[in-house]
Amino acid sequence: MSELSPELVASLEAIVGKDRVLSDADSKAHYGGDWTRVYRPAPCAVVLPGSIEQVQEVVRLAARENLAVVPSGGRTGLSAGAVAYRGELVIALDRLNSISDFNPVERSVRCGAGVITEQLQNFAQEQGLFYPVDFASAGSSQIGGNISTNAGGIKVIRHGMTRDWVAGLKLVTGTGELLDLNRGLMKNNAGYDLRQLVIGAEGTLGIVVEATMRLARPPQDPVVLVLGTPDMASVMEVLEVYQKRMDLQAFEFFSELALQKVVEHQGLQRPFESPTEFYALLEFEQRSEADMELAMELFEHCVEQGWVIDGVISQSVAQAESLWRLREDISETIARWTPYKNDISTTVSKVPAFLAEVESVVNGAYPDFEIVWFGHIGDGNVHLNVLKPDALPKAEFQQRCGEVSRWVFEIVQRYGGSVSAEHGVGLLKKDYLHYSRSALEVDLMRQIKRAFDPAGIMNPGKIFDL
Q1: Fold classified for 6-92
Q2: Residue 99 burial (CB < 10 Å; 0-12/13-18/19+)?
Q3: Into which CATH architecture does domain 338-435 fall?
Q4: 205, 173 contact by CB (below 8 A)
Q5: What is the CATH number of domain 99-214?
Q6: Confidence category of residue 1, pLDDT binned at 50, 70, 90
Q7: What are the phi and psi torsion angles at 241 (to 5°)?
């Protein structure tokens, strides 16, 4: 529905308060979309509940009225998974932002779904601990959204995805019931782990309202290396050499074009004078002088083998942060070109051939398109970004990129990869889900959704259609 009836508005206001039901155009646009710009947000209204009980009441009302709902977190998604474009009711979780019940023995803490990722990182630091899931949008993304998309980021090679840090969660189902899943247990083999089923479900099974998150010890004196390599195969050789001898905190890569854009538009310095085709960024802990000596020994070996042309190593925390910006500022930098973005993955060993084949197909069809590569190559996840030429109308660019998607996903399928490594499926990739999931898998997903959400009101149309 495009607008709520006065009776429904009054019912919602009775649940969350009069000032917490928003229907003005600015609020609908703000809360009804995410970082994608393909679909125009068009919710019927926005509600901001202040408690789990209020979320339950809103969902029960929506179920009775057969009103579709879209949960909204930090709205930083890149697959249109949080876009309300067909008159849905947006349930924004910003007010569920409390942190409580810190347990130093379990190294765990309870977070409302609206807690900002960086807020949890800072809380962990204040306790002398570390929350390792990190990415460029940590300053605005929310824990509930991270869980719903199983967010990854730059530390996956060492610390895994969001799902590895969720000790328990509370979920409001499509009927308004509250599930308390796993309750923080380390060991729990009493039947199916529904917690893991909910993680990455993009709000299609229910609304994550609270989570118990695990924390870790902080890394000791992290050191950053940026190495210039002549080709992607050399990046993989560097990864193999370092992984054999060291526990890496991160292993990222980016292309020369990505570096050029960041240096030009962010006012940063090149890491060294020699331009190379690709760059690898490594982070490791310097627990003793022996760690630094080993890192330099491996660097010299890679240079001797021709896998590394030049490199730089951080000498301070400030320099380490500056080197990280070369990688972390890429997404923000290239946003001005309205890029076609694709978040894809395959097994780590297949990445060089995989990337070369994708690049060849796109370059062959559209030689006037610039391609920016970066990603978490240590876990097989690469980000393809095709920049829109300034003279090309946006609509035509998007239409031509639709053809690119099909070609790219055919390659993904041939390599046994995923059409979405960490950003989810949402609206943007649901037509391509069959490249990564069999018909039987998708049918089982539909059956699972019906069990959690029998009326089909929870974020409908995302991932697949019922």
Answers
A1: 3.30.43
A2: middle
A3: 2-Layer Sandwich (3.30)
A4: yes
A5: 3.30.465.10
A6: low
A7: -60, -50
